[in-house]
């Protein structure tokens, strides 16, 4: 048997992403992430439009919306746990097999949601089961992004790591497009039919998507960096304890930097959907605008990731964060207009800025941790940022608006503070572009 190439050689072969093997790897990263986030973000759209009426109808309009967004938060709360669990096995036993398990788990939970009776049929057990399934979703998606990102990044040439890692990032907005269009299509049904059975169809379609995703994912090889790690005689420790013991600063900086990404998502794609519809905007028009904005985000993810390979992760992310702070109040004003066009402008601007920050974020977090703990460290940074940024943002936004009597001043001020904190974290982080991943300790 021929000796295996070193990881640095294998990942840089040809210095190109345009090979048959790399195209398969990037497709696996993108499509697998798309499917997982279709499932996870489908819930967000349903929480904004359906679950307050199907599972919390007896709670009153105001509290029902808060409760529906609260169950949304439950999934985000458990994402770091999923990152720690799947990261542990991904760092100990390899990236590929862990990704297969996360996809199967997510698909099963989503399909069961589509079959779950409402409160009118089985009473209080309905929202309890909904929350339990949302927790399973959170754990499953917690392990997805880190593995999908590393499968691409650890196979890629050094000078194109940012772009390669962004294929997992592109999967999230692409999944949002698919999920939003699926709900938009069934929302054309009369309200009674939409709320009784129409909303369930997109959830059940997950089974088909999972089969497609597994067919692609099973053909991808383990990463050369992990294979090289397997050949060393180094004693394997518990990845979570290593991250907390040896890289706590990088973990915290990664989390705070990423919160900006998810606060944008929580405001413009979840809370604002419900707020705009309640203010008078057409439901289907809002959903279509949201889908179009997610497509815009895919484009900005690609562009910013490519720019990060040339100018560095920090400079590109800082540009996005500062721009988002400047645009916070204009976005909120547009959402509050009560028109489809107002919401459309707000969500396109918000998701475009989100993509600028998000594009380099995969490489940004991966370059903070060594190979032996990279899955765990990157996953914890990303998933914790999602918990604090998107998991609680819709409920907090609703609460701040209620406390201020409908004024956006308090919400806008708090939102800007989040962007400032993220900017400081990015400035305090060392630039990772060009860093040799095999020498990070």
How do the strands and helices of this protein lay out in sequence?
Layout: H1 7-11, H2 20-49, H3 51-54, H4 61-77, H5 79-93, H6 95-115, H7 119-122, H8 125-153, H9 161-186, H10 191-198, H11 200-204, H12 206-217, H13 224-231, H14 239-246, H15 248-278, H16 283-311, H17 313-335, H18 340-358, H19 361-366, H20 374-391, H21 393-403, H22 409-428
Explain what this protein looks like in three dimensions.
InterPro entries: MFS, MFS_dom, MFS_trans_sf, Sugar_transporter_CS. Pfam families: MFS_1. The protein has 22 helices and no strands. With 441 residues, the protein is mainly alpha-helical. The radius of gyration is 21 Å and the shape is globular. Mean pLDDT is 86; it is low at 1-13.
Briefly, what is this?
It is found in: Cell membrane. The protein has 441 residues and is mostly helical.
- Per CATH, what is the topology? Growth Hormone, Chain: A
Please tell me the CATH architecture by its name. Answer: Up-down Bundle
Helix-strand pattern: HHHHHHHHHHHHHHHHHHHHHH
CATH class: Mainly Alpha
Number of strands: 0
Major sheet details:
none
Poorly predicted segments: 1-13
Shape estimate: globular
> Helix- and strand-based class?
mainly alpha
Rounded to the nearest angstrom, the distance between the terminal CA atoms is: 31 Å
Rg calculated over all Cα atoms? 21 Å
Strand content: under 5%
> CATH homologous superfamily, by name?
MFS general substrate transporter like domains
Mean pLDDT: 86
Overall structural domain count: 1
Helix content: over 70%
If helices are DSSP runs of H or I spanning 4 or more residues, what is the number of helices? 22
Transmembrane segments: 25-51, 63-86, 98-116, 122-142, 163-185, 197-216, 251-273, 285-304, 316-335, 341-368, 380-402, 408-428
GO molecular function, one term: transmembrane transporter activity
InterPro entries: MFS, MFS_dom, MFS_trans_sf, Sugar_transporter_CS
Protein name: MFS transporter
């Amino acid at each position: 048997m021929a000796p295996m190439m070193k990881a640095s050689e294998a990942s840089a072969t040809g210095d190109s992403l345009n090979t048959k093997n790399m195209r398969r790897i990037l497709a696996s990263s993108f499509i697998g992430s798309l499917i997982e986030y279709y499932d996870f973000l489908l819930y967000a759209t349903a929480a904004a439009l359906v679950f307050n009426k199907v599972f919390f109808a007896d709670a009153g309009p105001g509290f029902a919306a808060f409760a529906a967004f609260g169950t949304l938060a439950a999934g985000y709360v458990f994402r770091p746990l999923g990152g720690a669990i799947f990261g542990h096995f991904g760092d100990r036993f390899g990236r590929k097999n862990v990704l297969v398990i996360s996809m199967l788990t997510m698909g099963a939970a989503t399909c069961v949601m589509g079959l779950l009776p409402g409160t009118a049929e089985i009473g209080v057990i309905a929202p309890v089961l909904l929350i339990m399934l949302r927790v399973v979703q959170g754990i499953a998606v917690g392990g997805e992004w880190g593995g999908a990102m590393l499968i691409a990044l650890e196979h890629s040439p050094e000078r194109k790591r940012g772009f390669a890692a962004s294929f997992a990032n592109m999967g999230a907005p692409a999944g949002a497009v698919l999920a939003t269009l699926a709900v938009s299509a069934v929302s054309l049904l009369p309200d009674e039919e939409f709320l009784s059975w129409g909303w369930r169809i997109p959830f059940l379609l997950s089974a088909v998507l999972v089969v497609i995703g597994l067919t692609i994912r099973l053909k991808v090889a383990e990463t050369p960096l992990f294979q090289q790690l397997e050949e060393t005689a180094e004693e394997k420790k518990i990845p979570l304890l290593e991250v907390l013991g040896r890289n706590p600063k990088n973990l915290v900086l990664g989390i705070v930097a990423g919160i900006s990404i998810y606060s944008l998502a929580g405001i413009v794609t979840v809370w604002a959907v419900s707020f705009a519809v309640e203010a008078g905007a057409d439901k289907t028009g809002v959903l279509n605008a949201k889908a179009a904005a997610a497509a815009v985000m895919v484009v900005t993810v690609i562009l910013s990731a490519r720019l990060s390979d040339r100018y560095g992760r920090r400079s590109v992310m800082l540009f996005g964060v500062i721009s988002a702070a400047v645009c916070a109040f204009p976005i909120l004003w547009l959402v509050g207009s009560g028109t489809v066009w107002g919401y459309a402008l707000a969500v396109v601007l918000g998701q475009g800025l989100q993509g600028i920050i998000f594009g380099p974020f995969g490489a940004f977090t991966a370059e903070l941790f060594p190979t032996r703990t990279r899955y765990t460290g990157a996953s914890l940074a990303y998933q914790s940022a999602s918990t604090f940024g998107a998991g609680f943002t819709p409920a907090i936004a609703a609460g701040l608006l209620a406390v201020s009597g409908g004024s956006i001043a308090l919400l806008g001020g708090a939102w800007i503070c989040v962007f400032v904190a993220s900017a400081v974290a990015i400035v305090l982080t060392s630039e990772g572009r060009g860093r040799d991943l095999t020498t990070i300790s």
